[in-house]
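Lecture notes, unit on protein representations.

Consider one protein chain, 438 amino acids long.
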Amino acid sequence: MPSSGAPAPPRLPIEDSYLELLSDTLESLDLPARGQFLQRYFRATTHLDLRETQCVQLWDEMLTRRRELAEFLGRPVALKTALMDVLASAGLFRVPVIIEYDELKKLQLNAVTDSLTGLYNRRLFSETFEKELNRAHRYGSPLGLVILDLHRFKEVNDKHGHPRGDDVLRAAAATLRKALRTSDSAFRIGGDEFALLLPQTDAAQALALSRRVETVFAEMLVPLQLSVSVSMDHGVATYPQDGEQADQLIHVADDRLYRLKHSNHVRTTEPGPRSATPSSSPETTQRTSPPGAVSGLPSKPEPPPAQPISIESRRTPEKTETNLAAAASASAALAEIPSPLPEPAKPIYSVQRRAERVSMTGTNAYAVLGEQGDRRARVLDLGFGGVAIELDSVEGLPDNVMAVLHVPILPPVRVSLKPVWSQKTAQGPYRVGCSFVS
């Protein structure tokens, strides 16, 4: 027993104590179990994929080297020191660097991540693109590529400063993270350029996602209160329809992006009153500002609005007795209103589609109806202004119904629907067209 004045033996660090315990435990294991354990241990600590017999041999060499070093130095040597020496001598560590595991993971993440937006960078985009193309070719599945560009982003930096421009880029990144599936990937590949890789996604689904991204991005910009109407343009290319090589698909997507960008630039610079908010659109402008109206002066009464095109087909609704009566009532009401007083605007629930609908045939798309989710319908197709669903019966279907849409590409989306059209199919169920109500 050491005397009270003798210095206490130094305590081993936690890592060395763990290795000492590990060494004692391995002595009691048989050879196969020892090999399996050491194989997993080396893979976890050194990222080396070695055979079981090789792992056992390295461990025995490490114990021998530890005894040799202790005899040479005249003091105990940590197992960790002996292990590093053995691995380096065996050529398994070409450039031996000792670093904490958490720090290593942080360095690996920083190497492939854009620091401003938190999205993956261009370097990882190139690597991931090649891997996804090989996978799509192997399994015969489509692959969607979307190139995105912020329209009028430079004007934000010029008028509001670069910090506000950084806020716009972060809003774009948040939009992409919100809209994508777990299997999709988003990248920042340039100053205001982004790219999306969408496995098992055809052209129609990629376009639907791109339009959703544009809509969500406009909503994300509202709190920034910009004086510049920033939008997100997109160009879509799909494998294998538009090409089988990465550079071919990027060229096609870029070409479509800049054609759309030029179209938006021409539309934005056309003369005439235009709202500066990102959510402004031709539809909202027509509702709030009748053609020919001058600020401060009464406008002439307009004729009855044209029948909205059904979201189910490109035809106007049939002239049923109800529609004829409504049209006659509207005409009579219009004749009775004096010309200085324009007719109050009425809410419009069904508007002409901005783009072709996306068919959900062959997918497991469905909608859960009602606040309690007690009714379920199959989603037939999806458009910008609404959705078509299939129900066994339309009895008890309210004028406005809350629903949660579960469709490919999008996460579950909670929407308010207004049934505007229904028809019984030859198979028995009812096809119901619903418009989105904000």
